[in-house]
Amino acid sequence: MALNFSNTEIAFKNKSDNSLRKATWLFKSFNYPFIVEKGPMLAVWALKWHLPFVRGIVRNTIFGQFCGGETVNESMKVVAELNSANIKSILDYSVEGEENEENFDATRDEILRTIEAAKSNPSIAFSVFKSTGIARVALLEKANEHYLKALNENKFLDLNDLENIFKPAEFIEFKKAYQRFTALCDAAAAANINLFVDAEETWIQHTLDAWTESMMLKHNKTSAIIYTTIQMYRHDRIAYTKRLVEIAKANGFFIGIKIVRGAYMEKERERAIEMNYPSPIHIDKESCDKDFNDVIHYCVHTDIISICAGTHNEESSLKLTQWMAEKNIEPSNKRFFFAQLLGMSDNLSFNLAASGYEVAKYVPYGPVLSVLPYLSRRAQENSSVKGQVGRELGLIKQEQQRRRKN
Q1: Main-chain dihedrals φ then ψ at residue 198, nearest 5 degrees
Q2: Residue 121 has pLDDT above 70, yes or no
Q3: Residues 239, 160, 248, 131: is their CA dihedral positive or negative?
Q4: By the 8 A CB rule, do 246 and 231 touch?
């Protein structure tokens, strides 16, 4: 089937007329700054005070658009619906808790449940976690420059090499965080489930890179199981990817990479200004787009790398399909996945899947109150990304018109 991202019949085939009407109302609301900025905060307040009907309204609007459910089991209905269109799922526990050992352990246990669910359900292609969900930011930051130095020297640091930079109680806490990290990677490898380690801010990313590389060295001996994540709004990520390839070749392991444009741009720029260091962020969107496409091209031509292109960009998605074709790589080759968020860019997800490509949707889940910070970012993302709301609304309108004619 010819790839056509404008085919709304395929894009919305699992959406009822009522679902499209709800989506229209929701995306239109993102054009109002007050709703985007204050709506989630007001919803949190209302839910905490148990105001009537608020929970139901949130569940039936923004939560229903972007989340699979409140638990793994509740999300299985969405997983099954996606699988009927040949789209896999990525269960994403989207709760952001307080920084304490009890919450870190609870988050680890929840991610282990997603791995267990994926083990028994082939329609779940990946599990994923954020390291700040299982470790205190201050500890990750304290180790960051030491891991950077080791990276520049192509060394793998033993955890005990870092003991002298911490107070005794801190080092115990740091080791516990690393143990949670390794427990998740070990469980994914034992279950043969691909696992994404999400990228985060630059001031902790060297620590996360080092931890992820050590797990790739341990588990990616015959194929990519553990995946790092690179944010291409950073101007150093192509160089990092090429260095990672050198390390992998020297140490005999495969590389998994989730490639995204990124999620912390404004925070990064503001911190660089405040602390008077060069910004790690590209100067403009064009430079970011170029690096995103260039790293995709590099990975297609590097056999030891498996990738997941996490993008809502039609041009980047199309380029990847073209480069795969040039290399005679079949669409169904599991070294190459496309991924989008649930509730967004269905024209990409469903049309790629209909053409035989490996596609996965992020399926966030968690209690309604706890995932509101995630939902707030989705609203802000849709309102700030140029043309995103208009694109979504235009496609929905096109499909509604097509259905009326038929």
Answers
A1: -65, 150
A2: yes
A3: negative
A4: no
Q: What pLDDT is stored for residue 266 in this prediction?
A: 84
Q: Is 195 helix (H, G, I), strand (E, B) or coil?
A: strand
338, pLDDT greater than 90: yes
Residues forming a β-bridge with 128: 196
Distance CA 253, CA 164 (A): 30
| Of residues 295, 306, 72, 300, the one with CA closest to residue 194 | 306
Structure tokens at 87: 């789209």
- Smallest CA-to-CA distance from 323 within 312, 340, 335 is with 335
Would you state the structure tokens that stand for residue 198, as one six-digit string?
A: 């999400």
Per the prediction, the chain carries an average pLDDT of 91
Cα gap 192→122, rounded to integer Å: 11
Long-range CB contact pairs, 245-252, < 8 A, 24+: 245/302, 245/304, 245/305, 246/154, 247/154, 247/213, 248/216, 248/304, 249/304, 250/154, 251/217, 252/221
Asked if the model's pLDDT at residue 281 lies above 60, the reply is yes
The DSSP code for 95 is: -
- Res. 44: pLDDT tops 80: no
- CATH number for the domain whose boundaries are 8-405: 3.20.20.220
CB 342 within 8 A of CB 71: no
The pair of structure tokens assigned to 345 is: 């860019």
Instruction: Find the mean pLDDT for residues 164-176.
Output: 96
The yes-or-no verdict on residue 38 having pLDDT over 80 is: no
How far is residue 340's CA from residue 71's CA, in Å, rounded to a whole number? 20
What average pLDDT does range 40-63 have in this prediction? 71
Q: Is the pTM of this model over 0.85?
A: yes
